[in-house]
Write a structure and sequence with these properties.
- This protein has helices at 76-84, 107-116, 175-182, 191-199, 229-242, 260-272, 292-298, and strands spanning 3-7, 11-16, 23-30, 37-41, 48-50, 56-57, 64-67, 70-72, 90-94, 118-124, 126-130, 134-138, 141-146, 152-157, 167-172, 188-190, 212-214, 249-250, 252-256, 277-282, 288-290.
- It is built from 7 helices and 21 strands.
- It is 23% helix and 32% strand.
- The protein is an alpha+beta fold.
- Helix 5 (229-242) packs parallel to helix 6.
- A 5-stranded mixed beta sheet has the order 2-3-9-4-5, with helices on one face. The chain has a 5-stranded mixed beta sheet with strand order 12-13-19-14-15, with helices on one face. The protein has a 4-stranded mixed beta sheet with strand order 18-11-20-21, covered by helices on one side.
- It starts with a strand and ends in a 5-residue tail after the last helix.
- Bound molecules: zinc ion.
- Zinc ion binds at residues 76-77, 187, 233, 237.
Amino acid sequence: MDAQRTLRRQISCVGIGLHSGNKVNLSLKPAPADFGIRFQRTDLGGHQVPATVNHLAGIQLATGLAHNEVSVETVEHLLAALVSTNIDNVLIELNSPEVPIMDGSAAPFIYLIHEAGVKTLSSPRKYLKIVRPIAMSRGDKRIALYPSDHFKVTYSISYDHPLLRHQSRTFRITEESFIEEVAPARTFTFLKDVEMLRQNGLALGGSLENAIVLGETGVLNNALRFEDEFVRHKILDAVGDLALVGYPVIGHLVAHRAGHALHTEFAAKILEETHAWRLVEAVADGSVAPSSLSVKHTAPRLA
Ligand SMILES: [Zn+2]
């Protein structure tokens, strides 16, 4: 079996909220098996917000969660870093509504996780293995999951901009490939949109330090980290949003021109389509075996 994992010790950092511009303290704390990933607002007492689709709220420019009137926003880059490094259980404390934007990528969160170290727990990890295709589209935006032996993501984007008319990439997502190929890719925005965001009181913490900004003909930042950094960042966002399913997914995610709204709507649809997946545990030879116990609890129609 693959065992569940948590952090070896607590770790903290300080950053700013992209939209509020406020300083935020973030702490990641070890948690027991089957705790999952939960947020806690230390400025609002003890209420916890589990990182699952049941608590989705306010999907606009980033992915937000809420529970008992306690909200957390811009969760996707941190979630992507946690699930890609196989951290199943962690308590995330924030003293503000927004996860700090850091440099606009998931790389600083990977650094934090590595600094904290990883602890293996005795309970088995359950995977959500796709056995039938699930698909969804909204206009020309499409997203689907197909059966596969591994977690893979294929993403394509197209914009009316000379630098990113069309980009497409496929990665098999492992801890190593995520850290090397996906985590460093930064979020991006268009200069023409920045003024509109500011007028609406958003992106007050945004700068060339935490986003790629595209002008009419080029990038305002000094350099890109990858030639196709934009589509890599979309893969990062999709991995983080898909984490809201609550289990690591075994399947091939294929998305075209999607965004947080479609990613998260799709994550909710996956859980509804219980005929299209099984909960399984990995066995010693690397293949997967049905997890009869968990199937009974979460998907009775499969029995
Ligand atoms: Zn993003």
